[in-house]
Amino acid sequence: MPENKPNMLVVGSVARDTLHLPTGSHEYVLGGSAVFASLAGAFFSAPRMVGVVGTDFPDGEVALLKTRGVDVTGLEVVEGETFHWEGRYSDDLSSRNSIRTELNVFADFHPKIPEAFRDTPFVMLGNIHPDLQIEVLDQMREPKLVIADTMNFWIEGTPDRLKKMLERIDVLVINEEEARQLAGTHNIVQVADRLLEMGPRIAVIKRGEYGALLFEGDEVFSAPAYPVRRVLDPTGAGDSFAGGMLGFIAEQGKADHDTLRQAIIYGSSLASYCVEGVSVERLADVSREDVEQRYRAFASLARFDSR
Amino acid sequence: MPENKPNMLVVGSVARDTLHLPTGSHEYVLGGSAVFASLAGAFFSAPRMVGVVGTDFPDGEVALLKTRGVDVTGLEVVEGETFHWEGRYSDDLSSRNSIRTELNVFADFHPKIPEAFRDTPFVMLGNIHPDLQIEVLDQMREPKLVIADTMNFWIEGTPDRLKKMLERIDVLVINEEEARQLAGTHNIVQVADRLLEMGPRIAVIKRGEYGALLFEGDEVFSAPAYPVRRVLDPTGAGDSFAGGMLGFIAEQGKADHDTLRQAIIYGSSLASYCVEGVSVERLADVSREDVEQRYRAFASLARFDSR
């Protein structure tokens, strides 16, 4: 994808995952929030990925990322082993348990943004320690749009740091359950009100197989999820969503409200492809035309005549 | 609403509910599937309601139904007490427990469709024993469209009778969890496949605050839910949805696919109003123009530019 511009930066985890799925187990496959987000963003941009791996990280994975148009010059290689997560999904894939989380080289990670990357206009802060997310922002020069993800671990463990981070971003992308936890209330409209009071001017609430909600000012957008007939592996769907969303925004070079709505449908398209394969296999296989086709399928899914 | 046609028949429970809501308790308020569905349908049709009440049923409730345009000549009054349900909702209104279910006169109910009602073209079979739903169909003369609801109680208790009923209807309207139970699988696309194999040519899966899915042939429609800022009482939302949906179909006099999509948005509009008040208070208060306004709000909620 040589025509894509290097206008998007992704910082997050780069992992090797061991997945126990109802359809079988997969050892040490490619994973991590930065990987899924970059591969999804690569349909629209040439993402600059910043993260850390150990010396065990296979050359083949690096080659795959490059082939898909991801700039890996910000991928630090440190003596030791790559972050390894092992998890088991329930038979219906609706829940999962962590079996092992071996941080390895990720334990001492501090993102170093290469000088050449510091002017990147569109920035995604994957789900890592809020202090690291802040460290990234401290190194960036006036990005046009910053989106960030977070999770219950930081909401419970480092709420004050999380709040500092929230004051400095434009878009919070967060799972519904975690949004409720962070807001301390249940009703989703009230949840959005409180999230927006915390700093970001846009909140995107991910609802898995129920789609996503976008809140910006008085505008609310409800995006459907694509009804995937055979879900193989939900790992990375949320990161693909956010990466695809930001990628489209970066390609358009703007984040007005109508562009955001479209970006959410593109993000949902990428997430729907992501879950159709194990690890990144489907994301690394589909074409831009496949993505456009799924976008049109979303339009058909959501359409109804106005009155 | 004198201009509405008597083209819709609703059979179901007529109840007096005692509700324990986070905002307070309400004793012996109007409820039942036939009541909510008829009041919702009455925005588009003059619904013919068939059900049974005891001699304790207040004249005021009958008067309310009439005022809203519901034809109550099919409402049987039997010596004894009206069906009474008492339930308690969780603090976030996401679940409820039944405290008491007193069937009373409903225990011996067999729907008698008045001769003048037997040609009604659009029929809703509320959530009652499948044998009673079949009894209704045995009395009707070639309805144009029959929609039915059901629940876990019949899926577990009378599966064979339920299957007989399903062979005779056009549209199954069912909660997502119960759809999964009935289909015996989790993936919602596969669930829909199996429901349609059981007889109905259209399946509508209700997902509460996540909206609804419509499956007809190869067409899938994902309808959003309206983000209600203050939900007071979820009781009757599903019945209002189905009644509003059928009402619109009856008004249009057709059930082609595009009309079905619109009908689902109208049903969702009625459901969203229903939960804004306790019992039927909001449904009995809003106007057709309010319903149109909410329809337009749905359009704004779901819109995104095509590519």
The H-level CATH homologous superfamily of chain A, spelled out, is: Ribokinase
**In CATH terms, what is the architecture of chain A?**
3-Layer(aba) Sandwich
Structural class of chain A: alpha/beta
How helical, in percent, are the residues of chain A?
Answer: 25-40%
Strand order of the largest sheet of chain A: 5-4-1-8-9-10-11-12-13
Largest beta-sheet details of chain A: 9 strands, mixed
Count the strands of chain A? 13
The greatest inter-chain interface is formed by: A-B, 42 and 42 residues
N-end to C-end Cα span of chain A: 42 Å
Structure write-up:
Chain A is an alpha/beta fold and 307 residues long. The first copy, chain A, has one domain: Ribokinase (UDP-N-acetylmuramoyl-L-alanine:D-glutamate ligase, 3-Layer(aba) Sandwich). Helix content of chain A is 36%, strand content 25%. The first copy, chain A, contains 10 helices and 13 strands. Chain A has a 9-stranded mixed beta sheet with strand order 5-4-1-8-9-10-11-12-13, sandwiched between helices. The first copy, chain A, has a 4-stranded mixed beta sheet with strand order 3-2-6-7. In chain A, strand 4, helix 2 and strand 5 form a beta-alpha-beta unit. The longest helix of chain A is centred in the C-terminal third of the chain and has 18 residues. Chain A starts with 7 loop residues before the first strand and ends in a 5-residue tail after the last helix.
